[in-house]
Specification:
This protein is mainly α and about 110 residues long. The protein is about 70% helix and about 0% strand. It is built from 5 helices and no strands. The longest helix is centred in the first third of the chain and has 24 residues. The two termini are about 35 Å apart.
Length: about 110
């Protein structure tokens, strides 16, 4: 098995030439600039599929709308009237589905 690298002591670290520090600073600045630019381009967290948020919001709103329509005008809509209180199960199922999809949001 390969041995791990030994850490430099503080005195060894400060003995190095000043060019290393300048190069390291330039590299860190370039890296932070790249990270800032890539952060601006992102609309969702990294690793989140683009379909997750719209699907989650759509399912949640459909569930809420289904329940509201059932309570307000369910007796006027033939298939809702035939389903009876199962409309609540449909609405709650849509809302529960949105929470399941929300677990994919990173």
């Amino acid at each position: 098995m390969a041995e791990s690298k030994q850490r430099k002591s503080v005195s060894d670290h400060h003995k190095g030439d000043r060019g290393k520090a300048a190069r390291r600073h330039d590299t860190e600045t370039a890296t932070s600039t790249e990270q800032t630019e890539s952060t601006r381009r992102r609309t969702a967290a990294p690793g989140t599929a683009p379909w997750v948020v719209p699907t989650m919001v759509t399912l949640l709103l459909l569930g809420v709308v289904w329940i509201v329509v059932f309570y307000v005008a369910g007796y006027l809509i033939p298939f809702m009237a035939a389903m009876g209180n199962w409309n609540l199960a449909v609405g709650m199922g849509l809302i529960a589905s949105s929470f399941i999809v929300a677990t994919q949001w990173k």
